[in-house]
Amino acid sequence: MAKARQAQSINNVRTAKFTCLDFVGEWFRAVGRPERTGTHIIIGPSKNGKTTFEMMYAKYLSSFERTAINSVEEGLCKTTQMAMDRVNMWEVGSHVVLYDKLEIEDLIKKLDQHKSPNIIFIDSIQFADMTFKDYKMLKHRYPNKLFVYVSHVEGGKPEGKVAQRIYKDASVVWHIEGFRAIPQSRFVEDGVTQDYIEIWKEGADKYWGKMQNEQ
Asked: Which CATH architecture has domain 19-214?
């Protein structure tokens, strides 16, 4: 049985220090300064810019920590290359690595290696066949890493019970719709307006313009 954690005094809670990602600009306005560990999730339907945003986010996060994208769904293919092209991922060099369709047990072997990436994208929860037990295991085995999960949606919600539970546990959520990434964050502070991040202006203008005209 796991050892019970020691109770913390109110003063200990008040004075506790946490290492955060020092987001700036539109990223700070969207979600604030998240902790360097924990869970983020990107959800959205196909053909709305989800993969492109995933690459945008990985590129930005790699300025803080070395980042890995475990592309379970697409892997190393032309569409992955195109998504990286759209965000000029090549600018970050070795700060981002692509894992080609790793199963959970193989991902663990990578993450157990010395100096493994501290930020890991898993795309997608559904194609990884993840259980919630897998999710908790990764979270507890690697408490100093940040996991960013990508999920399909069904009826406007993450597809499947596992994805829905991860969604509820995540500290940062990105809802992808109409080529915009609309954030929800637990790190709201002064200056954080939770504004969306635009993925593709032309596509977003067309989508949201049509939405307004239909109202």
From this structure: 3-Layer(aba) Sandwich (3.40)
